[in-house]
Input
Amino acid sequence: MSKAITSRAQDYSQWYNDLVLKAELADYSAVRGCMVIKPYGFALWENMRDALDKMFKDTGHVNAYFPLFVPKSLFEAEEKNAEGFAKECAIVTHYRLKADPNQKGKLMVDPEAKLEEELVIRPTSEAIIWNTYKNWIQSYRDLPILVNQWANVVRWEMRTRLFLRTAEFLWQEGHTAHATRAEAIVETERMLDVYADFVENWMAVPVIKGIKTPNERFAGAEDTYCIEALMQDGKALQAGTSHFLGQNFAKAFDVKFSDRENKLDYVWATSWGVSTRLIGALVMAHSDDDGLILPPRIAPIQVVIVPIYKGEEQKAAIDNKVNAIVEELKHAGIRVKYDDSDQARPGWKFAEYEMKGVPLRMAIGARDLEQGVAELARRDTKEKKSVPLDKITAMIPLELAAIQQQLFDRAQAFRNAHITPVDSWEEFVNVLDNKTGFVSAHWDGTPETEEAIKEKTKATIRCIPLSNPAEMGDCILTGKPSAQRVLFARAY
Amino acid sequence: MSKAITSRAQDYSQWYNDLVLKAELADYSAVRGCMVIKPYGFALWENMRDALDKMFKDTGHVNAYFPLFVPKSLFEAEEKNAEGFAKECAIVTHYRLKADPNQKGKLMVDPEAKLEEELVIRPTSEAIIWNTYKNWIQSYRDLPILVNQWANVVRWEMRTRLFLRTAEFLWQEGHTAHATRAEAIVETERMLDVYADFVENWMAVPVIKGIKTPNERFAGAEDTYCIEALMQDGKALQAGTSHFLGQNFAKAFDVKFSDRENKLDYVWATSWGVSTRLIGALVMAHSDDDGLILPPRIAPIQVVIVPIYKGEEQKAAIDNKVNAIVEELKHAGIRVKYDDSDQARPGWKFAEYEMKGVPLRMAIGARDLEQGVAELARRDTKEKKSVPLDKITAMIPLELAAIQQQLFDRAQAFRNAHITPVDSWEEFVNVLDNKTGFVSAHWDGTPETEEAIKEKTKATIRCIPLSNPAEMGDCILTGKPSAQRVLFARAY
Output
C-alpha cells in the first residue's frame, strides 16, 4: 500500500504527522505555522463543534461575534493578560499595499498607510469583549451575560505542529459576566463539566478534572480549571480550560453594575475554551499503525460499504440490495457511504478507510448476496463477522455503540494504568523516563520547586485533581511538607 | 416608548442605523469599521448560515478551512486580483510586542520581530487556496474540487456601515476547480441559482439574476454573475456574486492537470460568496418604522407568547395552558419563546418584540383563558385575531407560512413597480431622482459611457439580466446603437 505510515514504535512523532497528512485531516500551508484543514478533517471538526454548540446552548449560552482586531491600548489594559500574550502577537501596522516602483508587477506596503494605533490580532478576546461589555452592563438586571463565540485566533508560536500547536487555530471562547463571585465559580465549574462530558462521551477520551498551579494559570485568571488527557506515548495533553477571572477584567475595563441594593460593584467573569487542538488529542488517543481510529459519535463516515464484484450484472444485484440498506441506515441517522467507485480495487478501499478511521466497514460480494450475508469489520478491534442482511441495519447502531464504548474503555484502562504514585525522586525520574504517564507525587507548593522539577525532568504539574484526597507527605524534590499529591507529566 | 427610532420618511439612513442598534442585531466596536454582532443578530446569521450550508452540501460541496494570512508574494501572483484588493488590505508586519521602556505598563511593537515577508489578511482567499490546490491536483481524477469555507475577511473600507460595509465581515467563499470551461460555467450558474433560491425563499427578498459589466466584475474573474435586490428606498443592493474565473488563477499559481488523454491543461475555476451584508439587505427590504420585520423561516424567534395577568393565581392558570402549547409548538419544530418575565409590562414587551421583528405574537389573559381563546398578532400586517386555543398549534404554522409569502409578495410588488424602462436621458435622470429603483435603459456597451453615466448620476449598471430579451435601441447617453437594455440603479 502506498499509504503506509511510520509506526508508533519507530517514531511516535513522525507517526502522528504521517497520519494527519495521509488520513487527509490537514495539510501544511504556504504560511509559516498555519495549516489547511482539509474537508475530511473539517467534517470531523464540524461534528465536534455542533455537539459542543448544542451543549453550550442547552446550558443557556448564546453565540455572538466580536472583532478580530484588538487595538493595542485595549490589549494592554489587563496587565497580566497582556504580558502573557505579548510575545506571540501578530500585529497589523498598515492598511494598504501599493505598486512597488522598483519591481514591476510587485506590491509593497504603502508607508503612507500606517495605522495611528497598531492592531493586535486576537490571541484571545477578553480585552475586546470586556471593553464591549462595559456598554452592555449597568444593572444586575443585565446579568448574567452568557456568550460564546466560534472564531479563529492567532498565537505566534515558534515551534508548530499540525493541530497541536499552530499559529492560527479555530476555537470557541466563552465569556461570561456575573453579579457574584459564587455564581462565576459555579459557571467556571459547569463549563469544565461540559468539556469533560464532551471529551469523554463524544471523543471517547477519559480526562482528569483539576486546577492548575499559579505557574500554569491563564494570564489574567484567578483560577484555571482544566481537563487533562493521556496520549498513547504517555505524554499528557491539556484538552480544555475554564477560567475564573475574578474581577480582573472588570477592573481593567471599568465594568461596574448596580446590585439590588443599588450599590456599585465590579462584575465577575469567566472564560473557557477548546480548540482544533482536540483533533490532535483524538488522533493520538486512539489511532494505530494502520491509521486513524475515530469514535462513531463524531466520525464523518460511520459506516462504509464496499462492493466486491465481477461484471455489471453482479454489480447491479449488489447495488440493488445496498441501496435499500443505505436508505434504511440514513433514515436511522447513520452517516453511511457506499463506495462503488470503479477507480480502485476493494483491497485499496479497505486500506483507505482504515487510514481514515471509519468505525465500521461492510463488504458484500456476489456469493454473500446469494447467502444473504455481508461481512462487517470493526476498525477498532479488526474483528470481522458474517452478518445476515436482514439483521444488518438493526445491528449496525449496536456495533457503533459498542465501538464507542470500547474506545473509551481501552483509553481509560491505559490511562488508569499510567497514573503512578511515587514517593522518591529516583522513582519519580524512573517512571517519567520509562513507564511514562502521570506521576502522582507530593510537592511543597512553591513555584520555585515546580520550576526546578521542570528544569530537571521536563515534567510539569498538569493539575491538582478536583477529586484529590488530603494526604500529608514530603515533597518529592525538597522533602518539605506537602498536604496533597499533584499530577506531574511530560506534556504536549 | 424609549426605543422609538427615526422614521424612514424622516431619514432612511438613520432609520437603518437606529434599527440595527435598537433591535440588538449589532453594535459598534472599539475598532474602526468593525462591528460586534450581538446574540440576536448572530442567531439570525446562524439560521441563514445553516440553511445555506445545507444547500451547499446538497449540491455536493464540502467545507474546509484555509489560513487567514496570505504572504505578499502569493497575494500579488494574480495581478488583476491583487490590483483590485491592494488598496484595502490590512497588513501584518510584526509578530511580537514588548514592554515600552519609555512608558510604564505600556507595550510597543518589537522592531526586532519584523516579518521577512509581510502577511496580507485575506480580503478573499483565491490566492492562498489556489496555491494549495496546486498540491491537490495532478489528474482529472482529482477534479472537480467543490470546497466552501465559512470565514472572516478584512477589507479596509474608508466609509463603513453596520452589516452593509464593515472592515471585517463574516462570509462564505466557495472555490471550485474543474476539468473543463463548460463544467466551471455550469457550477458558476448553479451557485447563482442556489443564492437566488436562498434569498427569495428564505429571506423573502426577490432578486434579479444577471451578469456584471467588465467594469463591475470581481478582480480576476472572466465573468461575474450576481443577484440584485431592491431596498425600500429605491436603492439596489448586490446580494451575492458567483464568478467564473477561467484559468486565471490556475495560470497564476501553475495548477495543471492531465486529462483522460494524458494531456496537460490548466484547471478551470469558480468562486462565489455571500456575507453578513445579507442581514443589511434583509433589514432594509422588509422592516418598518416600528422596527424589524423578519421572515419566519430565518427568524430566531418565530412566535412569542406574552401572558397578561393579575396575581399569581391567574399567572399559574395561564402558565399551565401555555406550557402545553409551547411543548406542542417545539415538537412541531417552531421556535417559540414564552416571555413570562415579571420585569416588564405586556405593552413594553409588545413593542420590544415588534422592534425585534418576531413574526407572530400570541397574547393571552385570564379572560381569554376562560373563553378558550388567545390573540394572535402578525408583525407584517399588524392584523390581530382571536383564535380558539384548541386550534392554535395547528394554525401557527399556517400563519407563519402566510407571513413568509406575504413578505415576498409585498417586496416583489414593490420591486416590480420599480423597474422602469426609459428611453431618454431626461427621463433617466428624472426616474433616478424621483421614482428611484431600477432603470431599464439602452447602453452602448463601452466602459467609458458606463463611467460617464456614473459620474453624472451616481447610478451604476447593476447587471445585464440573464432573462434579457434582445432589443435594438439607442444608448441613453451617447445615442449609439445598443443591442439590449441593462439595469441601472443607485446602489448600496
